[in-house]
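Board notes (copied after class):
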Amino acid sequence: MEPYSPEKLPINLSSMDWYIVAKKISEASAALAYYNGVLESIINPAIFLSPLETKEAVFSSRIEGTITTVDEVLKYEVDMKPGSSSKENDIIEVLNYRTATRHAKDWLNRSMPFNITLICAIQKELIQGVRGKDKHPGEIRKEQVWIGPRNRPIEEATYVPPEPLGLKTHLDTLVDYMNRSDQEVLIQTAIMHAQFEIIHPFCDGNGRTGRILIPLYLWSKGRISSPMFYICEYFDENREQYLDNLRQISEAKDWENWILFFMEAITVQAKRNSEKANQVLNLYNRMRNKIADLTKSPYAMKVLDALFTNPIMRPPDFIRISGLEPKSAHRIIAKLKSENILSTFQKHSGRSSEVLIFEDLYNLVR
């Protein structure tokens, strides 16, 4: 099988059934606009939705074979270690995904360009200390790779990405396309993601890198007010269709079915994201007055934000996140426990402090 040569951008989409495609774009745009309205109603979505960001990292990593859960990741963050090193590596991959996403947001927040340097930085962060760590992290590949059965020759490959010598040109062309302002943004996003996966510029981490780019790109194009959009649940639920539609682009130049699939993913996940964000927001609003009355403290908002940052934490984490003095923090924790807002998830043992759980939020994000 010969290395694939990506189509030139922008793609000629004149043969698509635009009646069907336009309807799907309209549905996706409406669902995304509604979700953005929810985002704009949230004072600090980075705090409110951080547990959902962890969930997104779990789904995206699962597509690549990483087996872990939101539960396990949250527990790991309070030093509740899993029973095996392989499980720990899976959890670290998820945490790397989340870290890479956050650093990329910081990059774009500083008005830095959406470019190859950013993309390489995302991929480098993803594979730090885990699978692929020895496969030239952050570097465009200099060798031919192929996708197919493990440990089988290229002749048995299901897909052979472009040869290494042309990768820089392909990526430059892709970034130029991403920065164009004369394209329909949702179609542009769908094509951006697919073309990135087709180019397959790294030796490892291409799928996760490409999925991280989706919310960042929608944010950079002004379609969402914060880069907190979670699409990987749909991709994970429809993994075979997701991969097959990408494969059909290289095998049959079938962009239409990929774009239709991508629009459906946007629509479904925008509705799910809206529902979940509204649930978190409603919980926050219920807790705001309750905690203010309970604590009688000028730091009630700091307490509230600390609770919503992570549903599982130890008292030292609560102190660090809230910025309260230890004495005040322990007094407030005791009050929160007395009102069943916080409860003990794991008792104090030896040198390990108690693990606290904010069950209302925990049950929302599991």
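Comment from the instructor: Residues 296-365 form a domain with the Arc Repressor Mutant, subunit A fold (CATH 1.10.10.10). The chain has a mean pLDDT of 93.
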